[in-house]
């Protein structure tokens, strides 16, 4: 009789362990899914930021701002001095 009770306790503990493990596995899987969605959102934002950076650094935009805001002009070709390294 004692052996059967002990066997029943072990079986019950094992069943509870399986249930807990399955629950924990589902929770971790949900967390992985959430983190993957977050990673995808960060990847999209990174792509947008790179495009924005390229737009702000365009040569024509910088020239236009230098001319418009600062009054800078390109020097005449004959007034440019090249220095050899």
UniProtKB/TrEMBL annotation:
Coiled coil: 25-52
Superkingdom, taxonomy of origin: Bacteria
Keywords: Cell cycle, Cell division, Cell inner membrane, Cell membrane, Coiled coil, Membrane, Transmembrane, Transmembrane helix
Presence of keyword ATP-binding: no
Keyword set includes Lyase: no
Lipid bilayer topology: Single-pass type II membrane protein
One of the Pfam families matching this protein, by short name: FtsL
Any one Gene Ontology BP term: FtsZ-dependent cytokinesis
Compartments where located: Cell inner membrane; Cell membrane
CC per GO annotation: cell division site; plasma membrane
Quaternary structure and partners: Part of a complex composed of FtsB, FtsL and FtsQ.
Function field: Essential cell division protein. May link together the upstream cell division proteins, which are predominantly cytoplasmic, with the downstream cell division proteins, which are predominantly periplasmic.
PANTHER family (UniProt xref): CELL DIVISION PROTEIN FTSL
Family under the similarity heading: Belongs to the FtsL family.
Protein name, as recorded: Cell division protein FtsL
């Amino acid at each position: 009789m004692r052996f059967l009770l002990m066997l029943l306790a072990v079986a019950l503990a094992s069943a509870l362990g399986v249930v807990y493990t399955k629950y924990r596995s589902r929770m971790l899987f949900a967390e992985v899914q959430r983190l993957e969605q977050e990673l995808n959102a960060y990847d999209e934002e990174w792509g947008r930021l790179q495009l924005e950076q390229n737009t702000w650094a365009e040569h024509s935009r910088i020239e236009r701002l230098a001319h418009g805001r600062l009054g800078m002009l390109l020097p005449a070709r004959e007034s440019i001095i090249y220095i050899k390294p």
